[in-house]
Write a structure and sequence with these properties.
Layout lengths: L15 E4 L5 E6 L4 E6 L8 E4 L12 H10 L1 E2 L12
Antiparallel strand pairs: 1-2, 2-3, 3-4, 4-5
């Protein structure tokens, strides 16, 4: 029997929420073992950010607020769609 996660399947996790130094709320979602997504929550005017997962930790709940803030600071804001969808009415 293979150990859990050996086929690249990550265990189901809850999404971690935290407040950044500016008082905005973010939600951390594990997308892959190498990539996490930081999504703005509620009235946060920020944009979705994609960050490289820290190599020393796979669970966002194990990170301190300072570590999460460093990830947020180093994240790349996602680019908006270049052109509108042709399927909109």
């Amino acid at each position: 029997m293979l150990p859990f996660g050996s086929r690249g399947i990550l265990p189901a996790m809850a999404h971690r929420r935290f407040r950044d130094r500016d008082g905005h709320n973010w939600e951390v979602r594990v997308r892959t073992k190498d990539e996490w997504e930081l999504s703005p929550v509620a009235d946060n005017p920020g944009r979705l950010r994609t960050v490289r997962a820290p190599g020393y930790e796979r669970d966002p709940f194990e990170l301190s607020l300072e570590e999460l803030q460093r990830l947020l600071d180093g994240g790349t804001p996602s680019q908006g769609r270049g052109r509108p969808s042709p399927f909109k009415d």
